[in-house]
Structures are given as structure tokens and as C-alpha cells.
Write a structure and sequence with these properties.
The protein is of the alpha/beta class. The protein has 25 helices and 14 strands.
Amino acid sequence: MTKGKLAARPGTLGELRKSHWSEERIASRSVRDEMRENLLAKLERKEPLFPGVIGYEDTVVPQLVNAILSRHHVVLLGLRGQAKSRILRSLVDLLDDEIPIIAGCEINDNPYAPLCRACKDRLAELGDGTPIAWLPREMRYVEKLATPDVTIADIIGDVDPIRAARRGLELSNELTIHYGLLPRANRGIFAVNELPDLAGKIQVGLFNIMQEGDVQIKGYPVRLKLDVALVFSANPEDYTARGKIITPLKDRIGSEIRTHYPVDVAHGIAITEQEAWIRRHGDGRLVVPDFIKEIVEQIAFAARESKHIDRRSGVSQRLPISCLENVVSSAERRAAINRERTVVPRPCDIYAAMPSITGKLELEYEGELKGGEVIARSLIKEAVNRVFSARLAGAPIQETVAWFDAGGAVKIADTTPADEALRFLQHVPGLLETTALLGVPEKADPGLVVSACEFILEGLHVQQKIDRTEQRGYVGTPKVERKPREETSGPQPGRRRSYN
């Protein structure tokens, strides 16, 4: 906003009355009316409603739009890592750029209809000379993370004996009230994250504001008719794990909207790329192959389907985000050790990123018996298998497999420089030609070619076409040699019967 516009804003109540901020416009327009009008305007202009929220265009967003147009209070239900908090915080974009308030008011009082005693007294004393302040929309969003130790005083308010002592007031005086977060969100949005963790008696304290539109401060015969849009987030599994949303409160919430994980890999990759810290080099040094991104995303999809992982807990989208960051860091480490300019992740870097996977998995009993690292390693192999099957189904790999079966072997460490690794890989028949099917020509950057070759070898390994050991690297699949049958006339005493 320019200085001219700042200077043109009314500074007193008298100036406000003469401006376009008429009493009728402010007094009769609630926060939910304001959100509704601004949302309709965005829809007409075809503006993006929730920037950064991917994959909800046909599911969550239409339901949320309907709820706002209906002037409902809203709760978002979903497992961890489903962008619930991001959506709640983006609702502030549906508010006006700024609104006028009585300067110095703790609860953002409407200049034409103040609620608190201090503002009423001030207005009676100063009249049209009452100073006006302007509250930006970013300051009209108040968020509270629900925890079991939250009290009524935190949310609603309570007596402040220190304020009473300093001002020489009796405790029965309304001016001794210390307002909680909810009154301080007046004329704005009040969000509660993880609502089931809020104690039942605290949830009861939200009844009046949702239905009757007011709150009562403890110990005072005063009712504050607040203007607040209430939005909540909750994990549905928390209803049995730690708490629940009490039925009368659920009844007063206008719309209950279910969120979900990405429905396809493309959406997951887009979210991961948006959120992960991988834009570390502005000079184009970092090149992350598409098949690496897809493998990382498929790990999360495989984990959500695994019988060894608690599906009720969910697998957060933070798993592929953290994993991709670790994958890039592992590639950076190799490039720094070998003084390589180009940073290209390889499949071995995904195995190096297992610490970013194991901590995000809630294992079932069978999974606990196997251990987190075993489960994480199996998820990586499953992800590699899915990507390999999708991208290289029907690829001419027979020559490559035959070379390994004939005794060929390739051993490449995760710190081997790209140029050196490429010299080893060039001896494998048909391998470099197959990389073209991944969009990586033989003449591409050595780091990119090596990454593609290693992906092909890892795919052949997980499909049991070749073998891999820590000592020997990639080798041919060992053949099981059968012992010749013993010629016997019948069952021999003391020996088991075998069938080959």
C-alpha cells in the first residue's frame, strides 16, 4: 500500500463515518459474510483458492467452498500429513486486506459497536475523536494447538488480580478481565488444531460462541457477542487413542470435511517437490532424475498398503519429503568427496536415506518383530520394482542378464565417482542402450547415465533376475544345484523320503 493510501485512511471515528466504511457496511457484515463475499469474488475471477494445496481440487476444495458459502464452522478430519493446518491458515486470504478497529482494543472492537467496557467508556468520552487503528488480515487469524493442559482461562478468559491491583479496581469490575485467545480473535478466524486433545470441559466452553454467538467470562455477568469463524482440525483415530470430539460440539459444527493422502503418484511427486528442500543450488548443479523422484514417492504409497504398518496411524507425506532431502544430501556428499560439479542422486542414495523413513512408520506387531530397517529396505525394493515394471516393462534386458549369468560382475560403491563407475558399466552388454528408454541418452552427463544404469541393475535385482551382495556387487543369479537321486528299492530305515 502506498503512502498516499495510508494517509487517506480515517484516523478517528468521525473521519470513519465520512468514509466508505459506513456503519451499515461494518455493523451488519460478519466475518463469515466477509469470507463468503470474498470467496465468491475469487470464484468469479477464477483465482486459485488455496495455493500450495495439491490433489484436493475435486474432493476437499469443493466441499470446503460449499461450507464457506454456507457460513459454516468447519472441522477437517484426516490422518497426519494431509495439509490440514496449511488449509486452515490459507483461509486468511478470504478476509479483507484490513479492517478498522478502536485503537488499543484487546479484542479488535468494531468502532460502531464496541463490546468491551474499556472501549465503551472511551467512546462515550471521546465521541467522534476516538482514535481508529487498522488491523491487517494476517493479524485476524488466531491458532491454538490443543493439548490436555489447556484451560478455560486460556481460551475464554479469567480474572486478572494483578491488573486489578495496579489500577486500584475491585475484582468485580469488568476492566479486570484478561481476555483469552477466543475473544482476541474477535472479527477474525479462530483455529484449533488437534481438537480431540482438548479436554471435554473446554470443548463445552465453545458451545455458546458457535450457537448463540457469545461467550461468558468466568465470574462476571457479562456476555460478549463475538464475531468469529471457528475452524478445527482433527485426526479421526485420536477419538479412541487420546480423546474425542464431544457429540454436542460435533452437532454445532456445520461441515465435517475429510482430507486424504495423494490419490496418485503424480500428485505425490508434485507435493514432495514443492515442500522438500532441494532447491539448494541456483546454478543447475543438482539434477534429480524423474525415476528417483518416483521411487521416493512410491515408498510412501507402498508403506500405506503394507500389512506391517499401522494404517490407522497413516504414513505422512513428510516421509517422501524428508527422504528426498536425504537422497539429495547423500548425492551432495559423494559430489563433494570426488569434487564433482554435477550432483546426481542414484538408487544407492535412497538406501542411504533410510533414517528418514524408519522414524515415520508406526509398525504393527509383525513389523516390530522384523525391525524398522528391514521394513524400510523392503519398502524401497517394492518401490524400485513398481517403477522398474512401469518404465521398463518389455525392455531388451536378456543380453544384460545373460552376461551376469555367464560370470560377469559389477561392484560400485556409493562413493564411486561417476566417471569411474561409467567405465565399469560400459562393459555390461546392452546396459547403456537400455538407459535411452528412461530418457537418458548414452552421451548424457556421466552422473545421470550412472544413475540410470544403477536403477536398471537394481530393478533386475529386485525382480530376481540378477543377484546383489555387499561384497561382490551385482552378479548373476546363483543356480541351485540339485543332488543326484539315490537309487533305492524302497524306503530305507532311518532316512527321510525326498522328492527332487
